[in-house]
Amino acid sequence: MTQRAPKPTLIRRPAASALLSALVCAVLAGCASRAPIVEPPPKVDLPAGWTAAGTANAQEWPDKQWWQRFGSAELTQLVDAGQSGNLELAGALARVKQAEAGARIAGVSLLPTASVYGDASRTLPLRSGSASTYADSGLQVSYEVDFWGKNKAGVASAQASLAANRFDRQTVALTVTSGIVSTYLQVLSLRDRLAVARAHVANAERVLALVEAQKNAGAASSLDLARQRSAVAQRKSDIPDLMQQEREAQAALAILLGKAPQTFSVAQQGLDTITLPEVSPGLPSELLARRPDIRRAEAELAAADANIAVARANLFPSINLTGTMGTQSSALLSLLNAPNLLANVSASLTAPIFDGGRLKRERDIAVARKQELVQVYRATVIAALSEVDTALGQIHSLDEQQRLKTTELEEARQACDLAEIRYKLGAEDFMTVLDTQRALSDVQNDMGILKLKRLQATVALYKALGGGWQGDQAQAGPTPAKT
Q1: Are 44 and 381 in contact (CB under 8 A)?
Q2: Looking at the predicted structure, is the pLDDT value of residue 102 above 90?
Q3: 349 forms bridges with which residues in the sheet?
Q4: What is the residue-wise DSSP string for 61-105?
Q5: Is residue 349 part of a domain?
Q6: Residue 464's Cα: distance from chain center in Å?
């Protein structure tokens, strides 16, 4: 019996077998490539406590709804409206969505790509012979072996950029919220100062009536009458400027809420119902995890580390695997018959030989960018420490100023009353009355400004401490694809 020779197979071909073995090893090596090493943030010397006197160093921080501690329901409504309507915050959210899409695109580099192709043609003879049909179709799959971790580093960079954008959005949200609270308090303060200014006008007009009566009785001179009329006009001239300041502050608040100033107004009339909350600054070492701008600087450092890994990997060869499975047939109806199926696997290696030093310069740029961000991180931490210390110092200084100014206000009010009584009795000249009126007006105006500054210093401290923000509020980005 005659034996048939065995059909040649791919396994019996040494070259093809070696190629398949190499491809398998390449895929395994690509899947085993490690993620880029991310260095920890640089160390910054942190103080043990704050320099402002009388401040506690207990580990107590503002809560997430810190603005509610001012005791204003209207303020709470405005903050909620600002968080949903502020245009700058909406733009920051759009940047986060862009970064999310970028992170997903970067993750695609870890997966194979597949494409389908097809082609068909028909030949018609002009004189003799029969028509023929030719068809070609198939599936092509390609994959870049991530020997040097370039693709994983690219994904890590995109993930870190996404985190940085999320931290940036939290920073914008904190800035918007503190701006709304501070501007709202300014509107109420200006309304208090307007009320005081109108009260001074009423008091000056009452004294004017007294001087006119004294003039008619021959006890006051025309000079006294002219001086008091001038004082009334001066008091009245303060009101239009305060009204304009109030309109401007209310317009600024409307902008923070994303509303047109013409359709917005504040209902509350003054600071009488506003509560002054107490804030404990905690420890300086905890500030690193409580400020979203510091966390953003950390994320940008992580992205820089990944970009360095990408730039270094670009200096080495890249390997691409390509696999094709298709069919060819001269008869369209028999396209899918088994004898017409074809398969092909190939590998290609590309290595940079001469590029004029471009790749090395790109690596140098990535390294220099990392060095720049190290300094940015340090500057951000130092600025945060300074902001907290400054706010604490302002609070301490303003408390002392208010204590002294309260005593001055009591004395100025008593002096003004006594001067008016003595003038009625003829025991004091009118210049003393004018001086005491002016002093009382100035002190009351200073008290209104100090009260606003003290409230705004508390807002500044809330902001400097991160406003109750915590790192777990920034959600993790999309998980990169795995090989």
Answers
A1: yes
A2: no
A3: 319
A4: ---TTGGGGG--HHHHHHHHHHHHH-HHHHHHHHHHHHHHHHHHH
A5: no
A6: 14
Which of 447, 369, 451 has the alpha carbon at shortest distance from 410? 447
Give the pLDDT of residue 190: 94
Check: CB of residue 170 under 8 Å from CB of residue 93: no
Q: What is the pLDDT of residues 301-345, one digit of tens each?
A: 999 988 898 888 888 888 777 777 666 665 545 555 555 556 666
Domains of the chain: total: 1
Q: Does the structure show a pLDDT above 90 at 252?
A: yes
CATH of residue 169's domain is 1.20.1600.10
For the four alpha carbons of 238, 239, 244 and 248, in that order, the dihedral sign comes to positive
Give the whole-angstrom CA distance, residue 249 versus residue 193.
14
Verdict on whether the full-model pTM lies above 0.85: no
450: its two tokens: 């100090």
**Amino acid letter, residue 293:** D
Say if 211 falls within a structural domain: yes
Distance between CA 385 and CA 121 in Å, rounded? 74
Q: Is residue 334 part of a domain?
A: no
Treating both helix axes as pointing N-terminal to C-terminal, what angle do 73-85 and 150-216 enclose, rounded to 10 degrees?
140
Structural domain of 86: 44-106+160-315+358-473
- Tell me the C-alpha distance between 403 and 141, whole Å: 78
Check: CB of residue 144 under 8 Å from CB of residue 56: no
What pLDDT is recorded for position 2?
A: 43
Q: Is 320 inside a domain boundary?
A: no
418: how many CB neighbours lie within 10 A of its CB?
Answer: 14
